[in-house]
Amino acid sequence: MANHRKHRGYRTQKVIAEYLKQWWQYADTAGAGRQGEDILNLPTISIEVKARSDFQPLAWIKQAEANSNNKLPLVIMRCNGQGEDVGKYLMFGRVEDLVPILYQAAPSSTVERCACGSWRLEGKDCTICRLMNTNA
């Protein structure tokens, strides 16, 4: 049983590295049993990968911070039953680290209310309206 969990963890690192190659072509898994970052060759972020059934977010983010080498520490978590669709995995970090990045992407002066009641970026399509039109 323990071997299955280890293999699942290593496989999760591999599929995450492959997914990230869309943006960082040299992204690679650190491999089995190596200390430090789980995904290598990312210039500004440091990723800790978890594929476990228990949930210890504070311990995991502390581990990510300890291994981050002054990069943005993040945790990517594969929940039980998720398979290998990396885009659906959960990712988290500290609010104090993420909010400034989110603000750069969507400063408050460009956010407006859509006719449907949702929020959207000024001049951009509303994601709620787009989903409703796509699923109709």
Helix-strand sequence: HEEEHEEHEEH
Largest sheet composition: 3 strands, mixed
Give the uncertain stretches in residue-range form: none
Tally of individual helices: 4
Task: Indicate the overall shape.
Answer: globular
- Look at the structure and give the mean pLDDT: 89
Main features:
three-stranded mixed sheet; 35% helix; alpha+beta; globular; 136 residues
Structure description:
The chain has 136 residues and is α+β, with helices and mostly antiparallel strands. Helix content is 35%, strand content 18%. It is built from 4 helices and 7 strands. It has helices spanning 2-20, 57-66, 95-105, 127-134; strands at 28-29, 39-40, 45-50, 72-77, 90-92, 111-113, 119-121. Strand 6 and strand 7 form a beta hairpin. The model has no long low-confidence stretch (mean pLDDT 89).
What's the short story on this structure?
By secondary structure, this protein is α+β, with helices and mostly antiparallel strands. Helices cover 35% and strands 18% of the residues.
